[in-house]
Amino acid sequence: MTRSADALRPHERAVTTPTGFDAGLWFIGRIRTPWHRRGDCPHRGDAETGPDCHIEVFGPWDAALAGVRAHENLQILYWMDHARRDLVLQNPKFGDSATGTFALRSPVRPNPVASSVVRLLAVDGPVLTVRGLDCLDGTPLIDIKAAFGAMT
Fold first, then answer.
1. Cα separation values, 31 from 27, 97, 151, Å
2. Which pLDDT value is given to residue 1?
3. Is the pLDDT assigned to residue 150 strictly greater than 60?
4. Percent of the chain at pLDDT above 70?
């Protein structure tokens, strides 16, 4: 079942969003994946068997990749630029009730920031090859952090 970007499912509620923002950020790169439609994206990336994806880091931020090869796993923060931002209650499975946005991993949120822990496969200059992403091709990159501990 499909819906338009503005249509609400039963039990969902949208709010009026603020007119201004409290902070700013820079997109430091772009993520390249095989997915071009939201419906094609997995609900969660698979760092073991998922497809190879590429993270392109823009200059001057590419210098910050020094030492990244030492890490098997990275935490990738990205901006879900195609997600709506006004739903406080969502009904992702068209059920009989809604769930609060903060209780879901949905891309629909006030600040559409996503985080994935990925497996680093290769570094080629400013381009990382990783496995474990779940976002659209061309998604803006916010940050990269070393991920310590076991992947879940």
1. 11, 34, 21
2. 46
3. no
4. 94
Report the mean per-residue pLDDT for the chain.
92
How wide is the angle at C-alpha 145 spanned by C-alphas 141 and 146, nearest 5°? 145
Q: Please tell me the distance from the alpha carbon of residue 75 to that of residue 41, in angstroms, as a whole number.
A: 18
Beta bridge partners of 134: none
- Provide the β-strand partners of residue 117: 75
CA distance 150 to 73: 9
Residue identified by tokens 């497809």 is 51
**Count of residues for the chain?**
152
Strand order in the sheet with 13-14: 13-14, 87-90, 99-100
Work out the end-to-end distance of the chain between its first and last CA atoms, rounded to an integer number of angstroms: 31
